Amino acid sequence: MTEFGTTLSSRELKKYRALINGLQCDGSSGETIEMICPSTGLPFATIPRCSAADVGRAVSAARAALGSSEWSSLSAGQRGERLHRLAELITQNRDRLAELEARDTGKPLSQGYGDIDTAAQYFRFYGGAADKVTGDTLPIATDHLAMTVREPHGVVASIVPWNYPMQIFARVAGAALAMGNTLVVKPAEDACLSVIETANLALEAGFPPGVLNILTGLGEEAGAALSFNPEVDFITFTGSPDVGSMIQSAAARNHIGCTLELGGKSPQIVFEDANLDKALPVIQDCLLMNGGQTCSAGSRVLVHQSLWDEAIDKLRTGFRSAVAGPYKDDRDLGPLINASQLRRVNAFCEQAEADGIPLLGEGTIAPDAPVEGYYTTAKVYGPVPVEHPLAQDEVFGPVLSLIPFRTEEEAIHLANATAYGLVAGVWTHDISRATRVAKALRSGQVFVNTYGAGGGVELPFGGVKKSGHGREKGFEALKEFSVLKTIVVSHA
Ligand code: NAD
Questions:
Q1: How far apart are the CA of 240 and the centre of ligand 1, in A?
Q2: Where is the active site (predicted)?
């Protein structure tokens, strides 16, 4: 078999290992999963297929590490120093990690670099924040001192998707470790290699064995066993709404909390006074980033009727110039993650075309892109009927839906008319309108005259409705990854 001209026999596939209690290990069954490069459709590495028994070992290691003096005696500032050291090591290994992330996920190389730099920034941010978390004093009586303190949950289970392995791992691990938790992370079977590498760097950065464990494997095996493990104290899940419901049931079964970061169908509202030359390139770039496989991609664009023709012309030109190619070539977009995702995205487009929805513009696939890779073209459709799956469902591919509107009320109604509520964009220079609309949108984040798909280490992030609950990123995450205790002292 060949990968970019290199012949790899099955024995030559690089073997990655899980990390349990500070030791690199295979799964107890000895079985492995082949990692496929989406750019070529060919395997290039293997990971252990961890079982429920391995989950038990990892959770026990995390539980033991929680009580070990090596971890529990560290001050918040000392935990912060280690997070800073980890950020430094990620930066030193930037080239290697960016190449690995791009190869594993298929994203263009420059986006791989962006993800590694953002991951380092998460560890820096939470390294600095670790010793800034304070409690309150509460004036209940003159002869009592009442106060609140924040304590770690204990063992946190983190289940990570394949689209931004490094960033999502870093935002969870940065905040959870800053608060003194220990972690068992189950990254996705489709892309997880940067997470394994970074966890090994964390040992070098001075995190004691068992504080950060990585279990590779399948969602329905290792992921399910982890989410139901009774020794886990808190779960954070990022992924699809269906699996999110299962995770919430598992958390309920064990009476523990969870945060769910699920999907989105985020609207971008372009009002009649918007600067199209500023808005449309941002809208296009944020949609095509990571091949449209971004939970916060603004995949539904509501365009004021008066700008419809101009917006169509400009987006048609923009989408026609978008080229999909292998990660190494750093085109506008890479391949999708796997064959089933490619089939799924293409099925949405075929259905839209069968239903008579106009395809307004379409990009191309680079002629030298390997035919076995999972490539699809960037596409823009419109007008898309509001109730059509293309306007309601998360396609998770490079597909933009345009919907016209006439009034502010209609725009708000359309923007809120899906099951999701993750991010929204508002494009207008009328500050009163921008504020009114931002307040009326049911969404975890609203951007005005800009859009931050996936961005913003400092910005609390999370959804409402089917997009999930709980907040990660920024200082808010430190609250999610800790529990508030009230202490009352009588000094009468
Ligand atoms: P997915 O739900 O299939 O998988 C996510 C993770 O869950 C993977 O690690 C997988 O192995 C694991 N998993 C699968 N089945 C499981 C089970 N039964 N029990 C426990 N774990 C299980 O999602 P995906 O296809 O990997 O990711 C795409 C979805 O994630 C999209 O809906 C996207 O919008 C969402 N997402 C959300 C955010 C966010 O922050 N809101 C970020 C990225 C992706």
A1: 4
A2: 261
- Is 27 a member of any domain? yes
Domain shared by 74 and 206, yes or no: yes
Pocket probe for ligand 1: among 118, 163, 196, the residue whose CB has the most ligand atoms within 8 Å is 163
Q: What is the mean pLDDT of residues 461-481?
A: 97
Helix, strand, coil percent values for the chain (each to nearest 5): 40, 20, 35
Kindly state if the Cβ of 263 falls inside 6 Å of ligand 1: yes
Range of the domain at 340: 267-457
In angstroms, rounded to a whole number, what is the distance separating the alpha carbons of residues 434 and 282? 18
What is the predicted pLDDT for the residue at 454?
58
pTM: 0.96
Length of the chain, in residues: 492
CB distance 259 to 248 below 8 Å: no
Same domain, yes or no, for 429 and 353? yes
Q: Which residue's C-alpha comes closest to atom 12 of ligand 1? A: 219
Catalytic-residue membership of 189:
no
The answer, yes or no, to whether residue 186 has pLDDT greater than 50, is yes
Instruction: Read off the pLDDT of each residue in 404-431 and give the average, rounded to a whole number.
Output: 98
User: What total of structural domains would you count in the chain?
Assistant: 2
Query: Is residue 455 predicted with pLDDT exceeding 90?
Result: no
422 CA from centroid of ligand 1 (Å): 15
Residues 289 and 394 in one domain: yes
Q: Are residues 286 and 415 in the same domain?
A: yes
Nearest atom of ligand 1 to the alpha carbon of 164: 43
Average pLDDT over residues 349-357: 98
Ligand 1 near 223 CB (within 6 A): yes
Give the number of the atom of ligand 1 that is nearest the alpha carbon of residue 463: 41
User: Do residues 155 and 63 make contact, with C-beta atoms less than 8 angstroms apart?
Assistant: yes
